[in-house]
Inverse folding.
């Protein structure tokens, strides 16, 4: 949404407000390196669930721009 005009951002803002109203809480952990990957841990908690996730980003500077980043998400249920 950065740089998007407010009119274009309305659907995203509505979705965010709905998530907040639903009682979803996101806690970001401290990023760290694991091998060649940047790992961004975060917890998602709602009234009836509490899950841990990791967003993992691998960067290959030798690859063409379109294939330079590989992103995966891992889920760790509590």
């Amino acid at each position: 949404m950065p740089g998007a005009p407010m009119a274009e951002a309305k659907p995203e803002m509505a979705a965010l407000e709905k998530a907040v109203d639903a009682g979803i809480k996101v806690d970001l952990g401290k990023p760290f390196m694991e091998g060649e990957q940047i790992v961004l841990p975060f917890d998602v908690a709602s009234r009836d669930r509490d899950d841990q996730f990791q967003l993992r980003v691998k960067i290959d500077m030798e690859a063409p721009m379109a294939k330079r980043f590989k992103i995966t998400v891992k889920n760790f249920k509590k």
Q: What stands out?
A: The chain has a mean pLDDT of 80. The first strand starts at residue 25 and ends at 28.
